[in-house]
Amino acid sequence: MAFAGVALNRPMVDFGSGMADPLLLSMWSVRFHRRPASAPRRSYDPVSPSASVTAPRPGLFGRAFRAFGRGSELVLDHAGGLGVLTWQVFMSAVRLRFPRREFVRQLYIMGVESLPIVFITGALAGIVTSQQGGYQMTGAIPQYVLGSLVVQTVVLEMGPVLTAIVLVGRVGARITAELGTMKVSEQIDAYHSLGRDPIHLLATPRILAGIIAMPLLVGFANAIGILAGMVAARLDGGLGFSSFFYGARLFWHSWDLFYSFLKSVVFGFSIPLISVHMGFRTKGGAEGVGRTTTDAVMFMTLTILILDAMFPPLLLN
Known about the structure:
The protein is 74% helix and 3% strand. By secondary structure, it is mainly alpha-helical.
């Protein structure tokens, strides 16, 4: 046998004893680059081959920058998803591809079934505004100005915002939990497998119903709040109804009614849009449904407050 130009005249295995020659076996393993099984695997390190490589820990600035990057990525992800969903719902509504019966059912759930809590919220808003205004207007300020204060506060701010907050808890959370349960139980995947678009069946009826129901609810809340504030001003401060309406007409602008209506339309569109978007993104079983519903309520509440803060500089100035 020849190995690397050297002739070896002894056999690799002694057939008499059944033992292999250890020298030849070691040369044979080197020949075919065989590493013994017991040899440890070593990672290459140019500094110290025996030392393990560890990444340096980021400093305070690095951690802050990383958190900012993750937050920015999450915001852009939600913004892109909401934009795509808005376009899909718009095309579905223009082409009339949504089921009318489901739209009427959602309109009844969001509108008619929400009237009691909206009436209570509007009445309490008017009563509290009247009482606080009457307390602050003691002195040289004419008492009839209280009518203007109640009407302007209820119509411009309290009615739309409080109604939206109520619908966030009653309607938005329900839509998110409902669609989230359908998502984790693969019912939405079943719609896709049957060739049905969940946007047409689930998203469009709910968003259109919210756009129509919200202005009606805000109108009822404004009316109930003004009437309740007028009665409270009569009982607490002795302000007559004619004086209340005189003060209300003194500083009334027709634009205020349109301002309240526009607020309600924007809120009525934002609440079901965010709830549908969050419901379609649900994952993780029953625990994921609860977590997504909580995040959706927080998301919708912050959105309502941010939009409300943007209205005065854009439309009242």
